[in-house]
Amino acid sequence: MRLARRQALAGLGALALARPAWARSGPDLALYEAIRDEGLKRGQAMTYAAGLVDGVGSRLMGSPGMRRAYDWSLARLRELGLSDPRLEPIGPFGLSWRQIRAWARTTAPDGAPFVVQAAPWSVATNGVIEGDVIALPLATDEDLQRAQGKLAGKVVLLGPPPAPGADGRAVVRYTDEEVIRGDAAEAVRAYYRTVAERRVRQGREGLFKARRNAFLAAEGALAAVVSGGAHPGVMTVDGGELGGRPWLATERPAFPVLYLSGEGYARCWRQSQAGAVRLQMEIVTEEGDPAEPGYNVVAEIPGTDPRLKAQVVLAGAHLDSWAAGAGAADNGAGVAATLEAVRILRALNFTPRRTIRIVLYGGEEQGLYGSEAYARQRLGHIPRSTAPEQLALPVEGRRAKAGPLRKGLEYEDFSAAFNLDGGSGRIRGVFTGGNPVLAALYRDWIAPLKDLGVLAVYDGPHWPADQSTFTEIGLPGISFLQDPLDYDSRAHHTNLDTLERLSPGDLAQAATVLAIFLANSANAAERAPRQGLTG
User: Fold this and answer.
1) Calpha distance 106→409 (Å, rounded)
2) What is the pairing mode between strands 406-407 and 355-361?
3) Domain extent listing, the chain
4) What element of type H or E holds 301?
5) What's the rounded Cα separation, in Å, for the pair 112 and 138?
6) Alpha carbons 10 and 196: distance in angstroms, whole number
7) Predicted model pTM
8) What is the pLDDT along the chain (535 residues), one digit of tens a residue?
9) Helices assigned H by DSSP within 103-233
10) Nearest Cα to 517, choosing from 374, 349, 352?
11) Which CATH code for domain 3-93+291-523?
12) Could you say which of 31, 439, 457, 494 is the most buried, measured as most Cβ atoms within 10 Å of its Cβ?
């Protein structure tokens, strides 16, 4: 054992008497060592990741890929020997859809082919279509008024191309100093300082995008084209420019929508400003049930303590992805690390006092549907506003509260929910969501992990994700600060979110750390302390 680790472990004894009564047993250091040995020397996280990312592929909600992912996940949980692997319904999701083929090229002034992707849930073109490209600002109601009578039969570019991307670092790792000082968490804190203002603006923007979609349809636009972004070679495809809920057949645009690579889009815009441009395109899709059901994949390691086994420690990650890539960093990495954490515990014949429940959520990308359904069915629910500007928000779970918490049958027996959804970077810190007592406990838990780079506990919320579902109803929802790697520059919702985005060593560390947190939570003397409802 290295000297730094010996010193860290020895220092824990002096802290024991300062702990609250429920925490005085301290970390089980022999268990830590066994988990580290199994996870870092014999890890299988990349095997799980490759099976999901390359074997199943993209997992857009409602698609055949998502149905394959359900089957794949159930098979892995059965192999791990978990109790009762099953699909738990989250309700009718939306349109069953997949892209079969999409392409586009100019026919004037030249014959340039483009890298494209059909917008998720786009209507098909029903054959090859061709039309003049029109490039107009379409960002305000005044812009729409100026465009009246000009769009019939045209291929409409939805606004000017974004400015070229900044030359930042493609791959980012936090320094130890950035983690310890909290610099690495500053972007998250800045987000929450302006969240109320942002939600008002996003509500207005959502309502405008719905009006713009209706306007384009009424004007007879042939098709709409969206820029894939400003970074060379990276095409972001997530439906954000369209607003609303395009996975619902009644709300999606009535015209075909195509994403064009940033370079291709900028070229079409420039050429259209200079003279006539014609675009030829085709979108071929397969559509099925307009109310395709969605599911969470669920299984357990049953608790063994007669007094505590009804209490649940949850390990979660979202199974769905967007369509342009293969959902590797977002969030095949989280699924793989969660499965690997369970494999580690099973390999050690770990017997939890509390039940450890695995939940692989569906529908996270469209608004935390899976975790919201899990909480609503088991734990509790807060009624949400149905005001039009609230329904227009891009993430349904962030709507304003319209009533008090209605507790479910399992609320009092719930301990904590852990969520991994930050790519495959190693874990550097823990976010406890505004729970100082829990934060103090976790600082003890990470003390033996400093040599792995786990250096800080932040008592505040992380980026909104599935853990937010739990913190918003007063339960511990835990997320992790991870080294970003190229999550933001190349992976997030893009065509490049493939297995190459994953770092095997980092993913093994994340799974090992998660296994330690699950084991500690399952066998602690008391369930995780609570802090109350968040805003």
Assistant:
1) 59
2) unpaired
3) 3-93+291-523, 97-175+210-287
4) strand 292-301
5) 25
6) 45
7) 0.94
8) 343 444 443 444 433 334 444 445 679 999 999 999 999 999 999 999 999 999 999 999 999 999 999 999 999 999 999 999 999 999 999 999 999 999 999 999 999 999 999 999 999 999 999 999 999 999 999 999 999 999 999 999 999 998 876 556 789 999 999 999 999 999 999 999 998 888 889 999 999 999 999 999 999 999 999 999 988 899 999 988 888 899 999 999 999 999 999 999 999 999 999 989 999 999 999 999 999 999 999 999 999 999 999 999 999 999 999 999 999 999 999 999 999 999 999 999 999 999 999 999 999 999 999 999 999 999 999 998 989 888 888 765 578 888 999 999 999 999 999 999 999 999 999 999 999 999 999 999 999 999 999 999 999 999 999 999 999 999 999 999 999 999 999 999 999 999 999 999 999 999 999 999 999 999 999 999 998 665 4
9) 141-147, 176-181, 186-193, 195-219
10) 352
11) 3.40.630.10
12) 494
Q: How far is CA 124 from CA 240, 256, 258, 259, 392, in A?
A: 19, 6, 10, 14, 25
Q: Using omega within 30 degrees of 0 as the cis cutoff, is the peptide bond preceding 435 cis?
A: no
Place of tokens 């990495």: 333
